[in-house]
Amino acid sequence: MMHFIECLASTSWSIALRESLYLYPWIESAHVLFIAIFFGTLLFVDLRLSGYAFKKLSISEMNRKVLPLSIIGFILMTFTGFLLFYAIPIRNYQNLFFRIKMFLMILAGINALYFHWRMNQEGKVWDSNSFIPFSMRCSAALSLCLWSLVIISGRMIAYNWFDCDKQPQSEIINFLTSCVVQTEFYEALDGI
Amino acid sequence: MESSQLLEIIYLLEDSFIGEYVRGSLWLFPVIQSFHLLGLGILGGAVVIGDLRLVGLLFKSESISYVITQTKSVFNFGLILLISTGIPLFLSEAVKCYYSRAFWIKISCLILGILFVYLVRNPIALNKGEGVYMKIIGFVSFSLWVVTAASGRWIGFS
Fold first, then answer.
1. Is the Cα torsion angle A76, A81, A86, A88 positive or negative in sign?
2. Structure pTM?
């Protein structure tokens, strides 16, 4: 994996992105705007599911109208996010917050898949009874919590507190970030 | 007010208790910033859904006043979260903000955006609320918030 990341980092586009003065900030600003589109529209889908907004519309109507926006936001957000990763691959790959963020995104994805699987099966019943099972309300709340944590951990990637080039770190941090440290070097420093 | 007087106030704000406190902490600024970003997501959702309805790209079968009623409290909540996290962020680096063009663009658009939404967009949308000029109102509101958010992000780069 590390070899692949190093290959990514040595491609000319990655170097161009890394060294560009304006492109990187522009992509990052776009990433933030797409987060707002994705998270903000998803918020309304989840608010409808919990019964706090747009109660006049059925669940499936709300999903049909708003979810495409969330999906567009998600695609654009992922694309700009990939470019941001691609600009600084090694640093991101070994960043603790980046790894936490990816883990949380996988959880959020599983939650979303489970939700939509249930909705495909029972959605018509929810619409006609205007009743949503408690477990599905929990799924909506969990979705908001997970995506909030994704945003927070994503913002934290910018901070290098646990980065590999900032040693000494505790062993558990270096393990979690796949950071291999030349221990002899630090032992030599201790000797001085 | 002369700019030197303004700068004096800016220095006072930077030296304020909250400013000092946020600056003195390693993790407080990042944490507040994360919640600021979360607030942006929340406000962004209300802006996207409300203004897309005004422009006529979403919820066409529902009335404008219904959509604005349904998004209003999310908008308010997002704005309160943004302002209450934005103030300590500003206080911690007030002087840097004073010299940042992005900051002044952001503050101008923010004030315009707030005035526009509460004095123009919402009252009109909730009362009569149909017609071609609603599209213009939606477009203006959306643009103001996009520039506010993007120039806000830019403060960090300057």
1. positive
2. 0.90
